[in-house]
Each structure stands twice: as structure tokens, then as C-alpha cells.
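Record type: ASSEMBLY
Status: queued
Input:
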Amino acid sequence: MLTLRDLVYVYPNGTRALDGVSLELPPGMFGLLGPNGAGKSTLMRCIATLQVPQSGSIQLGAVDALADPAALRRMLGYLPQDFGVYPRVSAWDMLDHLAVLKGLAAPGERREAVERLLRQVNLWDVRRRSIAGFSGGMRQRFGIAQALLGSPQLMIVDEPTAGLDPEERNRFLNLLAEIGEQVVVILSTHIVEDVAELCPRMGILVGGQIVAQGSPAQLIEGLQGRIWRKVIAKDELDGLRARQQVLTTRLLAGRTLVHVLADSIPEPGFSPVPPALEDVYFAALSAARTVA
Amino acid sequence: MLRQVALFELRYQLGSPAFRVTFAVFFLLAFGAVASDKITIGGGGGNVLANAPFVIAQTSMILSLFALFASAAFVASAVVRDDETRFSGILHSTRLSTGDYLLGRFLGSWCTGMLALASVPLGNAIGALMPWLDPETVAPMRVGWYAYAWLGLCGPTLLVTSAALYAIALLSRSMALTYVGAIGLIVGYLLALALASTPRLESVVALIDPFGLAALGVVTKYWTALERNTRMPGLEGALLWNRLLWIGVTVLLLALALRFYRTAERGLPARATRRAGPPPPAREQRAADARTMSSPPAASAPPSAGRRDLSTLWALVRHDMAAALRHPGFLVLLFLGGLNSGGGLWFADEMSGTPTLPVTRVMIEALRGSFTVIPILIAIYYAGELVWQSRERRVHEILDATPAPDWAFALPKILAISLALVATLCASMLVAVAIQLLKGHVELELSHYLLWYVLPSSIDVTLIAILAVFVQTLAPSKQLGWLAMTLLIVGQIALASVGLEHPLFLYGQSTPEPLSDMNGQGEFARHATWFRAYWSACALLLSVLAICLWRRGSHVSLSTRLRRLPARLAGLPGALSATALLSMGGLGGWILYNTNVLNEYRIAEDEADWAAQLERTVSGFESLPQPRIAEVELAVDLRPREGRAEVRGRYSVENRTGAPLAEVHLNNLIRDLEVRRLAVEGATLEREWPELNYRIYRFDTPLAPGARASIEFELLSERQGFRHRDPNTRLVENGTFLDNFQIAPTLGPNRGQYLSDRAERRKRDLPGERREPALEDESARSFNGLRRDSDWVQADITITTDADQIAIAPGYLVSDESRDGRRTMRYRTDAPIQNFFSIQSARYAVERDRWRDVELAVYYHPPHGANVRTMLDAMKVSLELFSEIFSPFQFRQLRVLEFPAYSSFAQSFANTVPYSEAIGFIHHRTSPDQIDMVTYVTAHEVGHQWWGHQVVAADQQGGSMLIESLAEYAALRVMEQLYGPEQIRKFLKLELGTYLSSRGSERLEEMPLARVESQGYIHYQKGGLALYFLKEELGSEVVDRTLRRLIAQFAFQPAPYPNTTDFLRLLREEAGPEHELLIADLFERITLYDVKVTAARTRQASDGQWETTLEVEARKLYADGQGQETEAPLDEPFEAGLFSVEPGTEGFTRESVLAFERRPLHSGRQELVLRSAKRPEHAGIDPYNKRIDRDIDDNLRSVDLQD
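Status: finished
Output:
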């Protein structure tokens, strides 16, 4: 169980990236949704011991991450949002080097682990190629392989599918799903579908604060009967925004389809629609922004 | 469009920190070079003004060399910025043309560099305006000079370097490799500099030196101080060609770069990012991607609980070493290092002007000089690269999140750099060995390489590497880390020059370790080891701190890391730090005890202050008459291993003043010579200054004229621990070489102890420089130039040394006994000698010979026997010749003794010639074309047995001419006898070149030969030339007869001593009035000729003879002491010749001379016609360079066929 209590992180330029974040994460996949700039990566880095929050606590089981970061690192697998590679280094050599750093000192044991992981992520055939020449999807797979080194009990995966084509995205999500139920996996993303497909639990982070958490089903249930749809003309949109809480707009055959949040039918012409996770997300965003 | 791009680039770069820092640093340097006498960059000092145009030119060009790294930053930024910021995609999709883009960026970055360098003339100019400067040393402000230096001299250099770096940046797309390119250019320059010191390559080097400094040197080689103060080196001659060549190279480089630049590919750089990678993988790869792993992953075992740290460490070190070695820059640096040291090493045996065997000691000294900067550069460069690599590549988040301990990041890098450096040092050693073998020298002495070079240098560079890693750990960026390291290194040099020179406070510094084959590393290595241990303890501390302050994670500021430090130091790191600090304390204390307690800590300023204090105290006593030493008895107890000499002695002094003497002054010249006992018979100590080692004794009853008294003394010279610099190299374990000034008292003040530098004297309010007494001052004749307190003495010297050494002193060996591991040898003179002699002791081998009844011997270090035979032969030839033309040799023995390479000279005492290991003994001629320096120097020293030990000169102007010039003349006579008059040009050309180039560095006043004031370039070089020419014009019989008369009148006589007036009087008598102009020109004036053959044509006349016409321009000049010349009418006969082979080159023999006549020359242009039977290839006026000509090379010309 990963427990975060009242985490606060302020950047030197005054930006309050985390403003009292508290979460309880049991083993299994947890999806962290939020817009760009919400503080997701900051939170990920804090848990990964790369940044030290100004206040709050991070506990993984018996380990206090702030007091003993080394202990947390021994149980950690981290795939950062945007990582680079050394030039002229092969996948095998790089994974081997990282295995050493993860504590797999014995050469035989290390070789086995590296081989197994490369096969698992399907990079075995290209293990001698320089990583610098990999495609985006291959690079992400390498990232997962290194995160899996050393059988971590906490996996942090930060925006892993942004920039991947649909096929690569599928593969990647399948890999993640295989990781197992004994491991706390935090998937931080702004792609709502990823969370919907994979995560039994989720949270929404906006402006440094958790504005919603629970299982997707629960959160969707909470909006039951409160989402209304209508197809309107483009020039009616501004007027509608002024009167109602518009969640999403989409174009449909030249006209605009809007979803609105209201406890009962807001105006004539609206019809109720079963809520989706996307609605949950935008509702939470809209709520957070009106409060701010 | 071009203008827009260039202007944008310029504005952008002007705002960058690189520009501001460069401007500030260079401004300060240029300012300091003028405003402070501690910083000299372009020359200046002495007679040359601080901001003389010559100095401005040199300063500008030297600093544009250093600006290389700044221009690398500007240029590389211009190229690489777009790729690194990934802006290039946008940029290259506009309408901007490739040409405009490339040229505009280049112009912008070059202009940035020019503006940065504008700081140099600005700093110079402002420095010259400072109110505290001595107005005597400042030239008037001429804006034109500064503008010319900036545009005409810096401009092209910067153009070339920017273009070269631009090309490298375009090709490599890498900031890193561009910096390596900058290092490459520096190395190339160092190589050129090393090569430029061999005269025969000079003109080639002047052309290929991209910085133009060698060309500048060639153009101004013979400039006197006056010219340096008033003339700006124009774009002429070597400098012009150099600039044109390199501008051409620039244009070529830029054209090539433009031609090969391809935008299409270059729009997306090869380093693929996640979002813009190379084309998608092949179809098979896609299929493979589609398959997912069927079975779930097996649970892998967690990392083994007891991690084997050592194998982890080794794996990491291997990884980091591979990363460093694989870096393309490393190979380039290594290659450059090999090139540079290869060049330096190949010519190591010619470096000091005379070619020697490439013995290991010489190779190591060349490596120390030319190579050791490379490992330092590598250390600084790679520390930055390795420390910042993971952050620059954005791999650091993955790495930092692993459970690896902090030391796993820092320590392997330190070890990797160190191992890479050791590898480079070993590689350099292999290059040196290869060169030795190529030259046929097989005594490799590998243990010397390892112990004298690889081991100490490895430690030294590892210390730098650790400091560099530490600095990079603290620095906020890689570039600033590099800058900080550079400032640290440069700053240490700067601090040392202002007097903060104790190696205890200069990181990585230790005491000097001079090398000698005779004495090995000697005790100097032991002393340096203490410092190395001290700094190693410091490095241990820095390593621990680097590990504990390591930048781990994101957004970790220095203050956060510093706050964490106390926690991180708990446990092993703290223990190591404490150990390191304690060791530093202990070792530092021990070192301080040695350097400041056992020895007095003195910096150069202190020594100068002492000399000034001495002068103020004792110069008033100079006119007080003193007795003369008549007999010397010495018993010297030498303990070479301990560096100790105990001297007990007795002088018998006589009053030769004609009046009673009230006092006698005892002056122990060496400050640290400890006095245990001093007693003057019949006198008591009246006053003493122990810190000046000067004492006044008053006779109870004044010493009557002609009466004698005895002075007894017991003195001790002992090495105590070690000093921070200036180790005693005279009293060493093998190869002790002391002269009696160092171990026995003198009487009365000695002007040689006073300060000679004008600026130092002025600073301490001492009167203007002390000059030698004028020729007209007859009272000065009562003293001889060697010692004022002695005429001729009898000596009885006993030396006790280790049983395995031989001790030599003047006199004939009287007894030689060994007992209890100590050997006692006693020497006695049977005829009076000069009171100036040496005491030497070493483990010698001896080779003996005879000439008539004179016993000849050479005492040498056993492996150095190669030239001993030559020395003995030279001694025989010289004795034979000199006893014929001068007078009989006065001794029954003559000995040459080798001494260690700490100095490279030879000296002549009575029948004893100490000769440095570094010159004659390892001298090596690779072709008969080269001068036989062994014979030359030996003959010169044998000549001193007459000039100096039969005739000794009065202590006046011109005195050194009688001693040194006549010895040079003697040596030239021997060379002429052995090698023929045809080969004489070689020697004379060498002498002439040295004389002309030394004139420019005269600090006071150049004197005519007869009034020379111990100025080496005059009494050696000019003197030899003048006397040889005299002989050629007057005939050897006239000159030799003059010298014989001089000897007959003055040899072995006490005061009054002879001077050049006596010599000239005798010469005029022997020569006759028809040679008056010649004699006056040679000895009483500074005369220079400027004779050039502007054209030489030959045609065959109708009678089959060849008629050659020479067009000649001739001038005669008289110069004053500062170098100002006035033309004088020329009307003298000159030698003219026609030759089939160029004189002075290989193959030139008597048969090569086709015509040789004397022709009158007058001022201005003229034509001479010479006839010969065969067709001539070369023609010349004064072809053997017998006259002092301003330009040595324009007297000869190859002859064109006239059609």
C-alpha cells in the first residue's frame, strides 16, 4: 500500500505544483488523470525520490520514502515522461548497465534477467542495435523493460502512450496489464481512454490537488442522470456557455454536439445521456476551475 | 536576408554569458599586461615600453590564441543551437536559403568574436592611462596602432579559427567535438612552436602557424629595443604570406562547408528524438512488434541481499571507461596529443640548440614540456562530459531512480578518468620509446620512464581529475564548470607570480624535480612525494565530498545538497573525510616544518629585499682597502648522501695596499652558509650582520704594508629537510659541484650580490643600475675581474668524500687514502693560480691520455663515454695550437669533469674544466653538416687556460672581452684548423644570428666591444666574430703576435691588471695606421653592415670564361646603445666569391671555390663583375659572413643564366 499524505511541492519560481495531495493506493493499477500543468509529473518524481516535497509524507508499506529514499528505490520501477538515451549504446548494454545500478551484481543472474526482459518486451531481436535508432514505440518498450528490472513493488509510469500510434499504444497497455496484481502501478496520463481501459482505481489531479478519486465505475455512477446532450448551431454556443455548465463540445456533421452538466433537464431540446469517463473528467475540471 | 541573419546572430550572441565573460576576462588580462608589472603577455620590460607597438602586436596575437575557446563557443552555438533546441525543423522550412543561412551565421559569430577581442586593445589603452605607471615606460597613445592590431592582426587569426571551428561544427553537429577541435588547434600551435625552435624549419613554420605568432617572431627577430618601441610590425614578408595563406584556407574551408552541407537531411538531425524518429521499422519488424509475449513474466528473484560492491564498482568503472574511450573526442585528443608530443619528442634532442643523443632523460623532459598539458586538458574536458552526460542526454531520471548508492555515480567516473589518463601517459611513453628506437638509441631505461614520468605524472593528473569532478559537481552547468577549472588553473599561476607560491596552497603543486642521469631523481623526488601525499589526502576529501554532494534527482539546488551534507557524511564517508583531514593536517604540518622552520621561507621578493638590504649596508665599504688572499688551505668533509659539506680552512692574507690596514671585512656570499668559527689573527670582531653573513674585524694593531695575517674558518653547508623551491643542486648524492665562492669566505663587498634589474632597484629606492668602472678609471686596474680580494694564490685542498667517489680539486694529487668507507684526497698547487676553483665529487670513470708531458684526463659518468675520445683529441689539438701561437701551457695536467644536467654550461678553472652532462657528453651529430660542438666548447675552455688563467683582466668595462672573446677566438682557430676555412661560415653564421637577435633584448645599453660590460651576446658572439675578422684582414701573424705580447706583459702578474686599452694599443702597434678604421669600427664602435646581392647573372664570354655580374646594395651603419642607427659612408674592400656549391653546406670544399677576390664597395648600388673558369651556381659578397651584417641570408644568391 502506497500512502501519500498532504504532499506540498513549491518550485523555486513560486509555482505551487502540489498543494496538499493525499492518496491511498493498494496494489493494482491506479490511473492519475489531469491536464498538462496539473502537477502529475511533479507528483511522480516526488514518489520516485527524484524531488523532495517541502512537506508531507510518502509511505510504501513500512518504508518512509523521505527518510530512507534508498529503501524505496530498491522497490521502485520508474518510467519517466521524457527520457533520452546515450548515443552509440546498444539496448543490451544499456539494460545491462541499468541492471548493475539496480543491484544485480552477479554477472550470471544479471544476464538472465536482461535476456528475460528483452524477450518479454520483444526487443530481443534488436538487442544489439543502438537505442538511439529506435522508433518511439521501441523506445517506450525499452523504458518498460528497465522499469521492470529487479522486480519492483512500485511502478511509476509517466505519460507512457503520448506520441505512440494506436498499434503501439495497444501493445504497451497490454504489457502494463500483464505486470501483475501484487504491484502498485501508477499510470499518470492525460489520455482518458487509457485509464478507462486499464485502471480499477483512479484519481483526478487539477491545480495540484486531488479533486476526485475512486473507481471509474463509482465516479461514472456519481454523474448518472446529470449529463445532458444536445445538437446546436455553432453560433448558439457562446450563449449556451453563459447559461449552462458546458462540459464538452464536438462537431457532428457540421453542427455542434454539446454535453452539459445539470441536475435536471437544463433547457428544452436536451436529452439525457449515460455518462462516460470523459464526462467525469471534464466535470471535475470544470468544478475545480470554477472554485479557483 | 544575409544581413538579417548575421545581425540577428550578432545580437543574440552579444547577450550570451560566453560573450560577456570573454570580454571581461580579456579586458582584464590586457589591462593587467600594461598596468601591472606582474603580468607580461607580449614582452615589454627593460628598454621596451609597456605599450610599445611591438608589445601591442604580440599581446593581441597571443590573446587571440586564447580566444580560441570563446570563439568555439560562439561558432558552435551558431551551428548547433538549432539542432539542440529542435528549432531547425521550423527554420529550414522558411524561405531562407542555405547560403544566406550558413554565411550569415558565420559572419554573425565572427563579428561576435571580433567584438569580444576588441577588449584587448581597449584594455591595453586604458591600462596605459593609469596614473600609477612610470611615465618613462609608457609610449604615446596612437589609436592607429590599436586599430591595426585589432583589424590587421587579430582579425585574420579570428577569421581562420572561426572558419575552422565552423567547419568542424557543421560536420560534426556536436558542441563537444567543436571544443575538441579548439583543443586540436591549440595543440597544432604548440607543435608549431616546438618546431620553430629548430632554425632550419623556421621559415616553413612561420608560414604554417595559423596564429601568425611564429611569423611575427620571424619578422621581428632582430629588432632592437628602439624599433620595438616605434615600429608596428607591418604586413610584410613572412607575416604577409602567413596571413594571406590562412585567409585563403578560410575561404576554402567555408566553401567546402557550404558545398557539402545538405539541408534536407540536416533538417532533422541524426539523433532521433522520441517524437521525430527515422523512417518506421521494416515490415518484419512490424510483424514482430505485433506479437506479444504469450506467457506472463516469471517472477524474477530480487537483487541478492549481500551486494558484491566491488564487482558492481568494477562493472561501473568499465562502463564509464568505455564511455570515455568510445567518445570520438577522446581518440581525437589522444591523436592530437600524440602528434604534439611526437613533434616535440622527435626534436627533443635538438631543442637546446645543440643536438644530443635522445637519452631517456631528454625524452622525459620533452614529454614534461609538451605532453603534460594534454592529460590536464583531457581531465578537465572529460570530467565535464562524464559528470553531465546523463543529464544532457536526459537519462538521469532513470538512473537516479535506481537503488544504486551515490558513490556508484561519482566514484566510477573518477576511476575511469584516472585510468584513461594513465593509459594516455603510457601511450606517450610508447611514442617516446618508438622514437628512440627509430633514431637508433637502444638504451631505453624503461624504469626511468616509469619512475620519473609515468608514476608521478599519473598522480598529478589524477589529482586534477578529482578536482575537476568536484568542481563539476558544484557547478550549475558544464560550461561554467569548465570555466571554473580553467580559472583555477590559471589563477594558480597568477597567484604564484604575485608571491603566493607555497605549494601547500596551490592545488596539486609540489617541489621541483630536476632530472640528471648522474644523480637520477635524487632526493628531489623524495621531497616531492610529501607534497603528493598531502594533495592525495586532499583529493580523497574532495572525492568524498563530490560523492556526498552528488546531484541526484531533478531540480536539486546546491543549497539543498549542502543542507543534506551533514547527514550524508555519517558513517564511512565521515570517517574517510576525517582521515583525509587528519592526514592533510599531519602531512601539511610536516611540510610546513620543513619549508618554513628548518629552512627560511623566501619568495623572490624576499630574496630581492635581502639583496637590497645588503647593498644598502655594505656598499659604503667598497672603497675601503682590504688585504689580498695569498694562500688557501681547505679541508672539505663532504657527505653527499646527506647534502652536507663541512669546511675548515685557513687563508694567509697580505697587505698589498702600501698603507697600514685597520680592518678586514669577511663576506660569506651564500646567505645560508653557517659559520661555526671565524677568527682573524690579531683582530677582534667589531661589527657583524649575521643575517647578511658580513663581519668586520678590527686589527688590534693595524696590519703593516707587506705583512701577513691568517684567517681561520669553519663553515657548514647543509641541506635541512627541503625548501619549497630552489633546491640545492650543487651538493647532491652523485655529482657534487661546488665552487669556492659557495664554501669559503671572501673579503669585502661583492657587487655580484646586488640587484641588477632596473625595476627592482627603483622599487626599493636604490640608485640607478651599477655599471662596471669605465675604461678611463685607472684605479680600477688594481682589481681583477674575477675577485677583488685575491691576485694569484697557492692552494692546498683536502677533500673527504664517500669511498666510492672520486674528488677533484685544483692542484696535483698528493695523497689518496680510503678508510672506514671514506676517501680522503689531497691536492696542492705548485704554481700560483686564480683564487677561483671548483670542488667536484662523483662516481666517475676515467679515461686518460697525454700530450707531451701534460697528463690529460676526462672524468665521466660511466654510461656517457660516447664523446670522451673527441674531448681528449680536442684538448690535444688545442694545447698544440695555443702553445704555439700564444705561450707555453703552464700546467702538467688538464682535466674535464662531468657534472649533472641541472645546469648546461662548461667552465674553466685552473687545469680543470667542469662540463655539463647535458651538453658535450651526450652531444650527437647526425650528419657531418652539423657543428662539432664538443670540440668547439672544449677548445673554448682550453683557450681559457690562457685567457683567464694566464692573463686576467682588470675589473673594468671591456674586461670580459679579454677573457671570453679571446677564448672564442682561440676556439675558432681550432675549428678552422680542423675543418678548414671553407667550413667556417657555419660557425660564424651561428654566432652572428645569436648576436643580432640578442641585441633586441638588451635591457640597458649595448656597448662597443672594447667597453663590453659582461654582456654575453657581445663578448661571446660579437667578440668571436670581430677577432676572426680581424685575423682575416690583418693576417693571423699580426693578431697572434699582439696576443703573445699581451701575455708576455701581463701573464701571472698581480695588479695593475690589463684592460682592452692595453690590447688595442698593442694591436695598433702591430697592425699599423692603415688599419685604423677597421680597429676602431670593430672595437670602439657598434658597426653594422647591410649588404645584399640583389641579382646575380652569368654568361659565358667569348673566351670560354664565365662572366658573372652581381648587383649589390651596400650600407654601413653605426648604432648607439639603444639601437638607433645612423648611416656612415662605406668605402672598404669586401670579399666576393663565386662557387659551385653553397658555402657552409654539405659538400662544400676548396674545389667549390671558383673565384675569390677582394673588391672595394661603396654606399648604395653598384655592380661587380667576376670571372671564373667554370660556371658558378652561387655568388656572394662577404660569403663567409665574416662581417656583422644586419641580414645574414642576403649575402649569397644563386646565379641565373643570362640569356
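Annotation: Chain B touches chain A through 55 residues (CB under 8 Å).
Annotation: The longest strand of chain B covers residues 1086-1100.
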